[in-house]
Design a protein that fits this description.
6-stranded parallel β-sheet; 7-stranded parallel β-sheet; globular; 22 strands; alpha/beta
Length: about 700
């Protein structure tokens, strides 16, 4: 086959890979030779450290060099299982080795032949035993590999199949022709070339080679990620925003039912400085704060300052439910100060929409709060001065810009209740200045958090009844709408090493709860309902007309219900940590003592560790660090519609945004100037990088240019 293999070569064109085996690879996301080489080992067995049997501890996994002592025998047990028994020895001990259902091994092992066995050693009295160890024939003078890669597998694949396929591609592909990292970037960061790095990571001779390869591919992932960020927020030219005058804010502060916390005061001052700057530099600021930290009222101050300067303000939220909540809160606060406010969502009636369009065009409406409906062609402002977007991770860069483009000169404030470490946010949101509200207002209580399984179901039902009798209300979140359907479940957390518990569905579970609590008012809400129906149910819950609300994560960002005192999340292992933290933030907003219960039948240590992190931490910033470490970057690129990709669009194979922060800084430092110098990646030396990014962009339904 020569050097005719390229990264685009289909697996079925490689020797030994037919349609069925290609289908098994496809389950791992491996479709061509390039995917195969980037299917990195998940671990390495260090088989080069050979021990004498006498030094092996009970239960230790190690390598031993043994000679076959007698002819292997096959024994059939229970009529169907075949055991192959082998006796081998070294200078210190003998060892009984057993293999299951591998009868052909009887003809493999020969008396007097030496093998390196790798596996767990079990000690019984003075005897050693091994069960189904890996083995390789030992020939004096012929070195055996120190490291043995262990690949992620799917049904129908073995380690040998993957290893043989990888070896063939490495031997028959001109690897350095597939290089995507520019030479200048590799040299500046002391990184090996692609071919060398691939050989090192799949077949390292020692730790130094392995570390060099891992460092190269971690950098590569972060460099591609950084290029994506840099290109997605390319400036369209210098913009100048309104120079606003200082406004007397005494009336605003007197209208508040509470005093600002020091953190809110600091953030408000930072926003004021941006809006009042003499140069006309547009404000581009991220207001980040944990759930319930009081971001909205700080944004209200910015809107008030804008309106008092005779400019209009647009406030965009990701859902109609949240938009209505903001409208009710802000119109009550700012309406008393003379600010004319309107609500515009997809469910707004046609006649009312026409009236709002007219009010925005003639300037009589000073503050409009809405959803994506704000960026439709019919919306025209007389003098838009400030754009505020809430839950910014649900809007892409382009979507924020689309609303900003409704005005000639616009300041921009984006808010997020999904905290991320500050140093990391400087890179991820490099187009924005950052204000952080790192404290909760006085009276905002911590929510007691518990993790339980089905054994506690009856006690949990009793606790639900107790909370309702005390006058509280209950949220119950399910990961699916109907049985076998999944909605907004963060599957990047799915633990593939265990059988996942059956999902609870909102619709079916609602009927079950109605039978168990016949005297309670129970309803459900989910993303497949029409907007008007969702708003009707949420309004009823907020009014206290519903005792138990069963929901999918549509309520993750929802109305403020101070009376809600209990949040229960079913199948909690199916959600991301930040998502669970957001859900927990739906309770504890009033005077009632509040609780959150995560119900999970997952047995893996990984699932338990995630949920324990929620139980032990109330800080969204700490949880965000754990979340990033476990999951990866998530949703930082815009989708075709402008919103952030919600699930699984970008996952790193090796990189970790928290642990590899130094490499991220280096990668971003290399990517940003390259994106500015060659924004279309038109230079020949950037062709492979461009091709890779275009494939990445296709995941988001977008084109690179």
């Amino acid at each position: 086959m020569g050097n005719r293999v390229t990264f685009d070569t289909k697996l079925t064109e490689l020797p030994g890979i037919g349609v069925k085996r290609a289908e098994a690879f496809a389950k791992l996301g491996v479709f061509n030779a390039g995917d195969l080489l980037y299917h990195f080992p998940r671990a390495y067995q260090h088989r080069g450290r050979v021990k004498p049997l006498c030094e092996a501890a009970e239960g230790e996994v190690c390598s031993v060099l043994l000679t076959i002592a007698q002819e292997p025998v096959n024994v059939t047990v229970k009529g169907r299982m075949t055991l192959t028994k082998v006796v081998a020895f070294d200078e210190t001990r003998r060892c009984a080795i057993t293999f299951f259902n591998q009868s052909y091994l009887k003809d493999v092992f020969r008396i007097g032949a030496a093998y390196r066995f790798y596996g767990k050693v079990t000690l019984k009295n003075a005897h050693c035993e091994m069960t189904s160890p890996a083995f390789e024939p030992y020939i004096p003078g012929v070195p055996l590999p120190e490291f043995y890669p262990v690949y992620p597998l799917s049904e129908g694949l073995t380690q040998k199949m993957v290893k043989d396929a990888v070896r063939f591609v490495i031997e028959h592909c001109d690897l350095d022709k597939e290089e995507m990292l520019p030479l200048s970037v590799r040299e500046a960061n002391n990184l090996p070339a692609l071919g060398e790095a691939l050989r090192f990571i799949h077949d390292p001779a020692h730790y130094t080679q392995l570390n060099e390869a891992r460092n190269r591919f971690i950098f590569e992932e972060l460099f591609v990620f950084s290029m994506g960020l840099s290109l997605s927020r390319r400036p369209s030219g210098r913009r100048e925003a309104p120079v606003m005058r200082e406004v007397e804010l005494t009336d605003f502060y007197q209208a508040l039912p509470f005093a600002f916390t020091p953190a809110q005061q600091r953030c408000a001052q930072e926003i004021e400085r941006d809006l009042l700057n003499d140069e006309g530099t547009p404000m581009a600021r991220l207001l980040s704060g944990d759930v319930g930290s009081g971001k909205t009222v700080v944004a209200a101050l910015a809107a008030y300052l804008c309106v008092m300067n005779a400019y209009q303000c647009a406030f965009m939220a990701p859902t109609g439910i949240l938009a209505r909540q903001h409208y009710e809160d802000l119109s009550a606060l700012l309406g008393n100060l003379g600010v004319r406010t309107a609500l515009l969502t997809g469910s707004t009636k046609a006649a009312e929409k026409r009236s709002i369009y007219a009010g925005l065009a003639d300037g009589s409406i000073q503050l409009v709060i809405g959803t994506h409906a704000l960026i439709t062609d019919q919306v025209c402002f007389q003098q838009l001065g400030l754009v505020i977007t809430d839950e910014q991770h649900r809007f892409g860069v382009r979507q924020r810009a689309a609303l900003a483009d409704k005005g000639k000169e616009v300041h921009m404030l984006v808010m997020s209740a999904t905290p991320i470490p500050r140093t990391l946010s400087l890179i991820l949101y490099g187009d924005l200045q950052i204000s952080v509200i790192e404290e909760l207002p006085p009276g905002r209580q911590q929510v007691d958090t518990f993790v339980v399984d089905e054994r506690y179901r009856q006690r949990l039902n009793g606790f639900i009844e107790k909370c309702i009798v005390a006058g509280g209300q209950v949220y119950i979140v399910c990961p699916s709408v109907e049985p076998s359907e999944e909605e907004l479940v963060d599957l990047s957390y799915k633990d593939t090493e265990e059988a996942m518990p059956k999902l609870k569905s909102a619709v079916a579970y609602t009927e079950q709860l109605r039978a168990e609590f016949p005297n309670r008012r129970i309803d459900f809400v989910h993303g497949k309902l029409k907007e008007a129906q969702k708003e009707k149910v949420m309004t009823a819950f907020a009014a206290g007309d519903i005792d138990i609300l069963v929901s999918t994560t549509v309520i993750e960002v929802g109305v403020n219900v101070p009376n809600a005192s209990l949040m229960i999340v079913e199948n909690a292992e199916r959600f991301g940590l930040s998502q669970l933290h957001q859900l927990r933030g739906r309770v504890g907003r009033g005077k009632r003592k509040s609780y959150c219960v995560f119900v999970s039948e997952a047995k893996s240590d990984a699932s338990k560790k995630r949920l324990q992190a929620l139980k032990e931490n109330q800080s969204g910033y700490k949880i965000a660090e754990i979340d990033l470490a476990l999951r990866g970057p998530g949703d930082f690129f815009p989708s075709k519609e402008g919103g952030a990709k919600q699930h699984g669009a970008l996952h790193f194979k090796l990189a970790n945004l928290c642990d590899d922060l130094d490499l991220l800084k280096a990668a971003f430092g290399a990517a940003e100037p390259l994106a500015k110098a060659d924004p279309s990646l038109a230079k020949p030396e950037h062709a492979k990088l461009k091709n890779h990014l275009e494939k990445l962009w296709m995941q988001f339904g977008m084109t690179l240019n």
